[in-house]
Amino acid sequence: MNATFAARRPFPLNRLAMGALLVLGAVTGAQAQSLVEVYDLARGYDATFLAARSQYDANLAKAEQAKAGVRPQAALGAGANWNNRESSADSLDSTYNSQNLTLSGSQPLYRPSNRASAQQGELSVDVARAQLQAAEQDLIVRTTQAYFDVLAAEDTMTFVQAQKAAVAEQLAAAKRNFEVGTTTVTDSREAQARYDLVIAQEIAAENDLRVKKLALDQLVGKSGVSPRPLATPVALPPLQPADPQAWVQQAESGHPSVVQASKGLEIAQLETRKAEAGRLPTLDLVGQYQVARAPSGSSSIPGYVRNNTATVGLQFNLPLYTGGAVQNRIKETLALEDKARTDLEGAKRAVTQATRSAYLEVLSGQSQVKALEAAEASSQSSLDANKLGYQVGVRINIDVLNAQSQLYQTKRDLAVARYNVLIGGLRLKQASGQLVADDLQAVNALLAR
Q1: In this predicted model, what pLDDT tens digit does every residue of 270-320 receive, in sequence order?
Q2: Model pTM score
Q3: 130 within 8 A of 256, measured Cβ to Cβ
Q4: What SS3 state is found at 415?
Q5: Structural domains in the chain plus CATH codes
Q6: What percent of the residues of the chain are helix, what percent strand, and what percent coil, each to the nearest 5?
Q7: Three-class SS of residue 312?
């Protein structure tokens, strides 16, 4: 027993793992970008968001077009004609020309349909604003997800490399013990198999890290983006408010999809008013000023004559029969109004369900983090106990390797769980329609400086 104890030296697994973590932390922290910095880059480069912003500008211009129906209209017209007259009845054959210049204008006085269209234009601005808000919230979540995906891949790489170093030391020790005859060849082969497995895991982790970094670079339009890791010790913020109904109430009133559906219902109601206005009269104020120059039509007045004519009046129009178009248009808009009302109710139900689900996911994530923190401490204790048992001969090599793998798997799961809680908090705000760019500051404060 004494010889066995002397041959089985304690292995510096903790120091190797800590060294790998410190090295990666130093590399990651050097010239790293914060989450807010990465979001600013994505906001100026992401094609989906830029397209949404361009669509927003187009919607604003379209809304202004709808107001033209209640505003004055003016037009300027001009004409010139060249004429050649040949007559066999008299000797008045001649060549002459005439010119005219006309300035006309109109002002709608009573056009209910145009007024409803202008109101629809104002509502469409609110719809466009809600659409842009939804695109911005989506960009915030996508950026945060890509940011923490890289951090999670880096953590996996770190833990795999730390496990590789520990398994390599275990393999070397098993070979030494076999050479001196204190263990069987089984320990050496088990360590070699575990080492080969870790090599395969390292290759997969390297590839996954490359893919995640490419995705983040593609999002921000910049290569070599390096996210900052979470500062240690990690202290996740509590969920506020802690009442799911409060989140649901916010969602039902302020979520972009609910706003769009609500404004869509109002637009549909105005469309019905426009259809009903099809059987109402219209009244416009019209005016015209014309300057015309032409040859005199009287032989007593030779040469050209210029006439200046100004007219101002009212133009009234009352549709008497439209072939049933107005009545059927009203039926159509009433059906579309019912559809818009149903869409609004569906939007409220959808955001309510999404908000409750997001709330439960955050709570579950927080509980998972606490459980994994306890599991990490237990796994560390289990590894220490197995190492000690291996040194005194009551544990075998595979026991140490299994305990070691469990510890690093727990560390990976804990890191991912923490990232998921932070992302879940943002998704909850997105589900309730309250997510804004300033919400990234709270997450940014948890990152290493």
Answers
A1: 999 999 999 999 999 999 999 998 877 655 666 678 889 999 999 999 999
A2: 0.82
A3: yes
A4: helix
A5: 2-70+112-279+327-444 (1.20.1600.10), 72-110+282-317 (2.20.200)
A6: 70, 15, 20
A7: strand
